[in-house]
Structure formats: C-alpha cells, structure tokens
Amino acid sequence: MKKSLLFIFVTFITFATNAQTGLYVPQLAKFDTAMLNLMSAYNVPGGQLAITYHGRLVYNRGFGLANTSTQDSVYPNSIFRIASISKTFTGVACLQLFENGLLNLDAKAFGPTGILNDAMYSNILDPRYTDITVRMLLQHSGGWDRAISGDPMFDAYNIATVMGVASPPSPQVVIQYMLSHKMLDFDPGTQYQYSNFGFCVLGRIIEKITGQTYDDYITNNILIPLGITDMHLGYNLLANQLPNEVNYYDYPGAPYAYSVYNNSTLVPWPYGGFNIEFMDSHGGWVSSCSDLLRFVCGIDRFNTRPDILSTATLDTLTKPSANEPNYACGIQVNIYNNWWHNGSLPGTTSEYVRNGNAQINWAIILNTRDAAGNINSAVDNLVWNVLPSINSWPSFDLFNTTSIENLSNHAIITVSPNPTKDRINFSVNVNMQLSNISGQIIAEEKNINTFDLSDQPSGLYFLTITDGYGNILQRNKIVKE
Known about the structure:
The protein is an alpha+beta fold. It has a domain of 66 residues: Immunoglobulin-like. It has 13 helices and 18 strands. Helix 2 packs parallel to helix 7. The N terminus is likely disordered.
C-alpha cells in the first residue's frame, strides 16, 4: 500500500503540554481523556496513541510536546524510539526466512556447524555456546541471565576497552567479547531469561543468511511491502535526530550517565548514556504509532488486511516457548489470544497490543519513562480500561485518508516565506484563521492563496488552515519579522 501524503491534524490554540493533534473522533474521545490523565500523572512531555478496528485505523492522535524547549507538538506522524518492540520485527524476519526455506529454527548459532561460523567468532570460552539454536535465541533461552552476568548491550565502553577498539563497538565486537570472555549462566534451552544480547545475535544471523544489512533486510522485506516508509534505526545523539523524531526526556532528577564515547563526559541517559546504534535488532527502531500498527495489522492473523506471513508461520511465531507460556518468538502471548510487546529505555515507553478476541490493535509510545517503572502498567491498562465504554467504532480508515467522507485530500500545504516581513503565500487556496500569541483571533479569510501581515506587529502568530467543512487541516507557527 502506498503511504498517503495526507496529514490531517487538530490542535488547541496554544502549544500547551495537553495539546492534542490528529483527527478528533467524538465517539472515541474517552481515549483522549485517558491519555491526558496518564501524561499528567506521570509527567509525560509527549506521546501518541493509535487504534485499529477490524484492520481500519480509526484513531491516530498525538499528545503534548515533542520538544519542550521549542514547544513543538507531537503529531500523528512524529516518530519515537520503540525500544524492545524492535524484537518483534526481528522475530518476524527470522520466521519469514524460515517460511522461505532459508533458516532452520533449530540450526545452531555458533561453532563449526553453526550459522555464525566465521573466524571472528571462533574463540569460544564456554563450549555450551555451540548448543544454542535460533529458536532458543528467539525465545530467550540461550543461556544468559542479566541478573547474574549483566547486560552487555548496556556495557559498550567496557567491552570496547577490553577488545581494544574505539567505543562504541559494533554488534560483531560485542558477540566476539561474549564468546571469548563470558561463560553462560545456564544450559541453553533450559530456562527463560529475557536477553537483549540474544536478539543482537539474531540480527547478525539475518545478515549472514541474506547477505544484507539487518536494516536493509527489514526495510526491503517487511516495511516497504507493508507500506511503511518512515521507520528507521535510531541514533545516539540529538545532533543526528531524524526528521519528525521527538526529543527524549529522562524522569525529573534522573542522574546523568558517562558517555559511551569516552566514559568521562556526563550526558543525559537518552543521548549517549547507552548505545542505541548497536541495539538495532533488539531495541533500535524508531516509528510512529500508525506505522507500528501497519506492521501489527500485517501479522495479526485477522482476515481484514493481508498478512506478511502464512497462517502456519504465524502459528509458529506465536507458539509459547516450553520455558515461558507468555513468550513466543519475539512476541508476548497469552491464553486469551492476545499478542503484544512492550519497550522501555531512558526517555522511551512503548507498547503494541493485538486484542485477538475483538480484532482490535493499538500502539502507545511516550517520550519518557518514570523512575519506578509504574508507567509501564499504566500504559498497558490504558486502552483495556476504556474499551468497555466504547459503543461504536468509526467506519473510516485513516490508513487510507482519501476515503474519509468530508475530509480534504490535499497534501500538507506549504506556507512561505516563514519568517516573513509582510506576506505569507500558500501552495493552494485555503480558508485560514490567524491568532496572536495570546490566542486572540486577528484575521479570518476564505479561499485565498496569500495573506498580508504588514499591518501586524513583529512577533509569533498561529495559523490555522481549514477545509470547506470546517475540519482543521493544518496548523503553523508564523514569525513576523
């Protein structure tokens, strides 16, 4: 499906922390209230919530601020780090290779007969490494226990120092380090112990089998076929922020971390306190909620939208492991036919859910997390708590905005120049309303392609553009010099 360029949003007159963007849906307004309550309770700068019903995107809204310094709002197309939700993408990639006959889930990962049998991985301290299979990696039973030996994916500088390379190291160097310096904590296949490192290994297995980078394989074989074009692997530093990406905020009073680059500079945890760039296959993706739901709808086993895997393969993907009834292959499951995964990093809280009994999917992403971790439960409960009060669902599909009755099919309207000394011009004829910084409406015009501000004092203005039905299409900040 081609991704629509249409971007429709609604926002309050000021860019306050409770600003909401995206199409307002009256019958689903209780989700607005629930999100605002959660954000207020946990001091969340910004977030998104999107919901699909029977394969249709019926709710897609942004809340609060993407950047607290500039007061820029979160929009439905803003993108966030999704942390461990990335594991589901890696799991689906492995199962896709399995379906295509390219990957045996019971194949060994290491050793002379393993997939990663390259010379760089030949120095193995613990012979049990050669017993680890792809399935064990997918199900977190590879032999690593973070509570005993720590998580190497948050030990970038130390690993680089031991291995004699610049920090942060590559995923390959991390694997070399673990093989040559760390014993396993339990016999492979005998326990469930959540392991970021195991999914790091799976990323390299995907690369070895396909001859592509992990990024390229996921993009070309999963994202693009599902119509997802604005999902990317993230970067450590704010200077490398992606277009439409939000800023990330640690909880108030959070300590600083030593930089993964030099272990001496103190930095905010979300920006260099850990190395997201080698977390690709277990925590590196950046996405909007709507694109995340395009993916979920592509694996949900419902008949409303085409799935990217066969029914039999989806059954394998979601079959609980022998060691943990609520985890399958990169995806969490339960006896109620629900699938989900959550994610958490400094500056990020995320979750998607597939409600199997109601054919409803949803995704929530926030640009912070709290100190105690209570926000994870609040995010998990938010939609579940509201669902019983929803009596009807919209008939439109925001995945295909051109099909929505009474909404304009214009792409984002260009407003220029900005800043301006006198006049602003529009790429199409518009209906517009101009407000000053106090929220006072100072001008309203219909069907114009230019507007003269020469009689207004210098300063900041808010421009609201509507269609012929009163729907707000776009909002811009205008600077008059």
